[in-house]
Amino acid sequence: MDKSKTKDDVIRLTVVGDGTVGKTFMLVRYVTNKLPLGYEPTIFETHNCTINLNEKRYNVILSDTSGQEYSDRMRSFSYSFALSNCFLICFAVDSRTSFENISHVWIKDVKKANRKASIVLVGTKSDLRNTPNETISKEEILKLVKEIKAHSYVECSAYTKDGIDNVFNEAVRVAAKNMDKNSKCVIS
Ligand SMILES: Nc1nc2c(ncn2[C@@H]2O[C@H](COP(=O)(O)OP(=O)(O)O)[C@@H](O)[C@H]2O)c(=O)[nH]1
Ligand SMILES: [Mg+2]
User: Fold this and answer.
1) Is the C-beta atom of 36 inside 6 A of ligand 1?
2) Ligand 1 in contact with 41 (CB < 6 A)?
3) In degrees, to the nearest 5, what angle opens at C-alpha 110 toward C-alphas 106 and 114?
4) Which domains does the chain have, with CATH numbers?
5) Which atom of ligand 1 is nearest to the CA of 128?
6) Pocket flag, ligand 1, residue 23 (CB < 6 Å)
7) 120: closest CA among 11, 10, 7, 14?
8) N or C: the chain end with fewer CB closer than 10 Å?
9) Phi and psi (nearest 5°) for 81?
10) How many Cβ atoms sit within 10 Å of the Cβ of residue 94?
11) What global pTM score does this model have?
12) What mean pLDDT is predicted for residues 150-175?
């Protein structure tokens, strides 16, 4: 059986970041095109979809996380994390704490779980940039991108839908590129 072929077709994306940054809203908006208003789930069930990019079709498995993983850290957390090809590490552009926790908490967990996975840094709630709220500057973000060696930075708003499709297209693009690179490093 050609194991590598079936494996390469599947891309596992895992969304992490502090609670309330908007991870679940981002996923629900992308998958259903709606906002989960009125019921606000803490977590969005794992969802399979296909994303076409550069005339190629990818089977994508999207996983949300809720922080619950911490209570049972050594099992579900490390297990689902270890399988991930790409992490979308999120902060909300109006939350300095969520931004700082990326270098304090999230990058460490992600690296511990899977050193080879790609990293896309995601700034959520971009609609708040047009309000008097204090938001994280582009300079600070670029500095963090370099520090954590993220493959890219994307910004989105589940409320306005700005950048939502781009988050997932970009994640698939960097994951596919990274998997390609890793599969070429075969030791025979
Ligand atoms: N302004 C704004 N608020 C948002 C956006 N997305 C989510 N929120 C709010 O942030 C809260 C937390 O979102 P949620 O997706 O549950 O966060 P999670 O804990 O990271 O999954 C919700 O009550 C939303 O109303 C957004 O794009 N813009
Ligand atoms: Mg959630």
Assistant:
1) no
2) no
3) 175
4) 8-182 (3.40.50.300)
5) 1
6) yes
7) 14
8) C
9) -65, -40
10) 20
11) 0.90
12) 97
Are 62 and 51 in contact, with CB atoms under 8 Å apart?
Answer: no
Sort strands 56-63 and 47-53 into parallel, antiparallel or unpaired.
antiparallel
Q: Does 9 contact ligand 1 (Cβ within 6 A)?
A: no
Residue 29, ligand 1, Cβ within 6 A: no
Ligand 1 centroid–CA 100 distance in Å is: 18
In which band, very low, low, confident or very high, does the pLDDT at 181 lie, cut at 50, 70 and 90?
confident
Q: What is the mean pLDDT of residues 125-151?
A: 96
State residue 123's pLDDT score: 98
Encoding tokens for residue 157?
């708003």
Among 14, 15, 20, which residue has the most ligand 1 atoms within 8 Å of its CB, making it the best to mutate? 20
